[in-house]
Amino acid sequence: MLTYQDYQRSAQYIRGQIGDFQPEILLTLGSGLGFLAEETEDPVFVPYGQIPHFQTSTAPDHAGRFVFGKLAGRRTMIMQGRLHLYEGYDAQQVAYPVRVARLLGVQALIATNACGAINADYKVGELMLISDHIRLFDPDPLIGPNLDEFGPRFCDMTYAYDPELRQIAREEAAKLGIPLHEGVYFYFTGPQFETPAEIRAARLLGGDAAGMSTVPEVICANHCGMKTLGFSLVTNMAAGMLSQRLDGVDVLQAAEQAKDDFSALIRACLPRI
Ligand code: HPA
After folding, report:
1. Which residue has its alpha carbon closest to ligand 1 atom 2?
2. What is the pLDDT of residue 129?
3. 273 CA to middle of ligand 1, Å?
4. What secondary structure does DSSP assign to 69-135, as a single string?
5. 162 half-sphere exposure, CB direction, 13 A CA radius
6. Which residues contact 67 (CB under 8 A, 6 or more apart)?
7. In angstroms, rounded to a whole number, what is the distance separating the alpha carbons of residues 145 and 211?
């Protein structure tokens, strides 16, 4: 069980690395999206493995480090690679960086991920603004003794994805001429892709996109009072939507194609958050 002191020790170590840089926004970069961290001004890199109590990312294309620096004029703390349940970490370990970011003064989380489209109107390479998520059976990061220093035992999730930030994202996407779907992210732990029957069930329940990340972080961000904005990049049609198998390599290829839109949209939103 992680204690409040563990989070404090991690934050203290990071402060020692970044000096008087005070991050405002935490940006988590999903599979294939790590390139955005390279655009940071005067970056300071802090590998997860060096931080007390941290775990490191093992997923392909996840560098496993924080990048602190300015992006679009904002002081950002970027997770170049995140942790996933499927790597063997529990939900609290996966969400750990969010609470550490809060202790460093961060007020808002922008979470990004790769997803499989459940909604037949979506196409590979398009972006979805997350309006809400569904986590029915998978582990929850808030289970266990509540850390009152971060937030209440029973945390409200009515506006888990902040309505004002979503409006900003819609406006900026329209200005840039980037098509932006808005839909519900259905959380699966992976690592295997879903079965077609699971995808049909998720669609019946209201899911528009399937993915293996983001939800633990968003739950903890809400718990500790951070505003959240989430973007999913459609890297494939979910299992059973097309008569072909899914291949993890396609995820990275699709992310590569959508790079420019993705980067432009995040950069346009940052100054308004
Ligand atoms: N399912 C779950 N996670 C994903 C997918 C998918 O089809 N594509 C990219 N991440």
Report:
1. 211
2. 98
3. 28
4. EEETTEEEEEEES---GGGT--HHHHHHHHHHHHHTT--EEEEEEEEEE-STT--TT-EEEEEEEE-
5. 18
6. 37, 40, 43, 44, 45, 76, 77, 78, 80
7. 28
Question: Pocket of ligand 1, candidates 235, 241, 244: which has the most ligand atoms within 8 Å of its Cβ, to mutate?
Answer: 235
| Closest atom of ligand 1 to CA, residue 116 | 7
Query: Which of 212, 245, 253, when mutated, tests ligand 1's pocket best, judged by the most ligand atoms within 8 Å of its CB?
Result: 212
Is residue 30 within 6 Å of ligand 1 at its C-beta?
no
Maximum Cα–Cα distance across the chain? 54
Mean pLDDT of 206-233: 97
pLDDT in tens, 188-216: 999 999 999 999 999 999 999 999 999 99
Task: Determine the atom of ligand 1 nearest the C-alpha atom of 237.
Answer: 7
**Which atom of ligand 1 approaches the CA of 251 most closely?**
9
Q: Please calculate the CA angle 173-214-143 and round it to the nearest 5 degrees.
A: 145
Q: Atom 3 of ligand 1 has which residue's CA nearest to it? A: 211
Q: For ligand 1, atom 9, which residue shows the shortest CA distance?
A: 115
Q: What is the average per-residue pLDDT within 41-60?
A: 88
Q: Are strands 227-237 and 127-134 parallel, antiparallel or unpaired?
A: antiparallel
CA atoms within 13 A on the CB side of 67: 23
Which phi and psi (to 5°) does residue 147 adopt? Answer: -90, 95
For the whole prediction, is pTM greater than 0.85?
yes
Pairing label, strands 227-237, 41-47:
unpaired
Q: What is the enclosing helix (H) or strand (E) of 180? A: strand 180-187
Tell me how far apart the alpha carbons of residues 29 and 233 are, in angstroms, rounded to a whole number: 11
